[in-house]
Design a protein that fits this description.
single chain, 13 helices
């Protein structure tokens, strides 16, 4: 696959332009509503799919299929990031209006680090093809570990990175708006928002160790690996605000992600034995994630109310007078709500 330098430059320009638009749109701190998150999610997904269509048109169905497979893998695994981000924000009591700023710079750093990892992985594969087998075995192991530990809860207080930051970085316990650093008593100190940003960045690097080899399982073209990864990551912020309040319901998602990792790991291990068609890879990944999400939502939905739940109960005779008095008082107190 011969990708000219101008194509790389054009992709980077589009990514930077979209990041600038996103930063401008969220220049003032505010709580991102579900509606706003849904709109931005639609924008990012549409952008990713449109780029995939361009790849399909320019380089053919095989390249287009590989891009979409990589995009789907990264988008699926990104949901696991949402679990961790929600946990971190809750642990540090990060105000909702400041969370977008943390995720914006977290994603910006993630793009840089992933570009470095992808370049390094491509060089390794080009010079040492047997590395693919190590990637495959690692993904199978990671998938199995994720499945067996899917119900364990992370404890941010035990994170070694957090201990290092507390030990070596002068910090303050108070938030100062969206600022990462403030000057106190003549010296610069980090706010809790900076600590959260560091943890978000480190967490994404750890997740990249899984996701990047997984994308290399469906394509070894650096251009496709980077673009599928980048366009999926760009929508991570909107995905978080869209799913943060529902994430507790995805009880089987980790099991689904574990199956995906094992599948792509096996696919990589079988490269010299049987090359699984790209359309089959997309079908398996999409079906697995869909089943995991639907199964989770069905298992955690509220039970249907029975007629007895809505049947009014008559007050006891001795309590009727008190009930009538309470209703009169309620009408006087809350009458403005009933107008």
């Amino acid at each position: 696959m011969d990708v000219p330098l101008w194509a790389w430059a054009a992709v980077l320009a589009v990514i930077l332009a979209m990041l600038a638009v996103d930063l401008f749109a969220h220049r003032t701190a505010h709580v991102v509503s579900v509606r706003e998150a849904a709109i931005w999610s639609g924008v990012w997904v549409s952008l990713g799919l449109a780029f995939g269509a361009v790849v399909w048109w320019a380089y053919g169905a095989q390249a287009g299929g590989e891009y979409f497979a990589g995009y789907l893998i990264e988008k699926s695994l990104a949901v696991d990031n949402v679990f961790v981000f929600a946990l971190m924000f809750a642990y540090f009591s990060v105000p909702r209006e400041y969370q977008h700023r943390v995720l914006f710079y977290g994603v910006l750093g993630a793009l840089v680090f992933r570009a470095i990892f992808i370049a390094g992985g491509a060089v390794l594969i080009e010079n040492f093809s047997w590395v693919l087998y190590l990637f495959g075995a690692f993904l199978v192991f990671t998938g199995w570990k994720m499945f067996t530990h899917r119900n364990e809860q992370l404890d941010p207080s035990r994170n070694p990175v957090l201990r290092l930051v507390k030990k070596w970085v002068p910090s303050t316990a108070e938030y100062h708006g969206q600022r990462f650093w403030v000057k106190q008593a003549g010296k610069w100190v980090a706010t809790p928002l900076f600590t959260v940003l560091v943890l978000v960045e480190v967490t994404d690097i750890i997740f990249a160790v899984d996701s990047i080899p997984a994308i290399f399982a469906v394509t070894q073209e650096p251009f496709l690996v980077f673009t599928s990864n980048a366009f999926a990551i760009l929508g991570l912020r909107a995905m978080y605000f869209l799913l943060a309040d529902l994430i507790h319901r995805f009880i089987y998602l980790k099991a689904g992600l574990a199956v995906v990792l094992v599948f792509v790991g096996v696919k990589m291990l079988l490269l010299d034995v049987y090359k699984i068609p790209i359309w089959l890879s997309i079908a398996v990944i999409a079906t697995t994630i869909t089943v995991a999400v639907v199964w989770s939502l069905r298992a955690t939905r509220d039970p249907a109310p029975t007629p007895q739940d809505h049947a009014p109960t008559a007050p006891e005779p001795e309590a009727r007078d008190a009930t009538a008095e309470a209703e009169v008082a309620g009408d006087e107190t809350f009458g403005h709500r009933r107008m």
